[in-house]
Design goal:
The structure is a homohexamer. The mean pLDDT of chain A is about 95. In chain A, the strands form 2 sheets. In chain A, strands 1-2 form a two-stranded parallel sheet. A two-stranded antiparallel ribbon of chain A has the order 3-4. Chain A has a single domain, classed as Macrophage Migration Inhibitory Factor, CATH 3.30.429. The radius of gyration of chain A is 15 Å and the shape is elongated. With about 70 residues, chain A is of the alpha+beta class. Chains in contact: A-B, A-C, A-D, A-E, B-C, B-D, B-F, C-E, C-F, D-E, D-F, E-F. Chains A and E meet through β1 and α1 of A and β1 and α1 of E.
């Protein structure tokens, strides 16, 4: 019955990667907590780099500095 | 003063349905908890079926199996 | 498959009221969106009035003013 | 190490405003709680006015009344 | 930079199990998305069975039926 | 109408600090986005250090290393 919410920046995550995240997190709940996978829910939120901050700085501007 | 977050897959939910969800949830807070509707906030998040998993499987692939 | 999170202050909510919230919200998903109740998850977070603010003010101090 | 999630309606928030929100909230964690900004994460969710309700009413219809 | 929130019922989860969840989810972000573990944040919310519903029913009463 | 959720570890945060967080975040919404403070909601979640991970490590064990 667990509910897991994964928040990541929307930087080209593929459907295959999302499927792996969902499988992997669900399996972890089974392995560690013996939860029933049938009612384990995983929701992935992809967030624009304009809307994510770390260290007080917007990720978009962090990425621009990394590129230059 | 309650805050309610509804997460659903983005499978053609209409504005009328969203209005009914918001009305219904707010009324429930009034009926059950005697909350003030004026400060009851409801936020609906519509999530791509690629980003929702149940039973370790992506909803997009569950939907594809249901169709075939 | 919806996931609903209800956040309310922890001001004496009874188990019966929680059961009514869970029943009511789940039924709303069935009525409005034709969702499967078996995989509809509802989580209620009860939050201390010290940790809830509205209008820039802590609910604890709003409640104290209402009492006096 | 704080995590802050800001939910607002998607009514023309500019990248400059988002940067100010991220800076301001992070600075608040430093000033009030002496937190390390380097691991303070801020995520802004912009929500359609169709998906936000207050007082049991959808914000889209509140905005339409305000305009007329 | 991912943020992962795990919500589970508070049914005797040990510190060792929590550590395994945190390690496992963080490693998954590294393996699947090549994320930096140093800024990957995991928060586990343990929720009373009175406050969790599935299928319109409170988990406390589901557990009572399973025992009897 | 914004909703802000602040998640921090439960390491002795005082009611005065919580009041400052609520005031400060609400004022930020007014200053940056011209939001109405009367319907701005702030919820603070205090999380056990056993339930918070960063860098794949539980904060409780990070704190123990810092002390020793």
């Amino acid at each position: 019955m667990p509910y897991i919410n994964i928040k990541i920046t929307d930087e080209g995550v593929t459907p295959e990667q999302k499927a792996k995240l969902i499988q992997g997190v669900t399996q972890l709940m089974v392995d560690v907590l013996h939860k029933n996978p049938a009612t384990t829910v995983v929701v992935i939120d992809e967030v624009s780099t304009d809307n994510w901050g770390i260290g007080g700085e917007v990720v978009t501007s962090i990425r621009n500095k990394q590129k230059s």
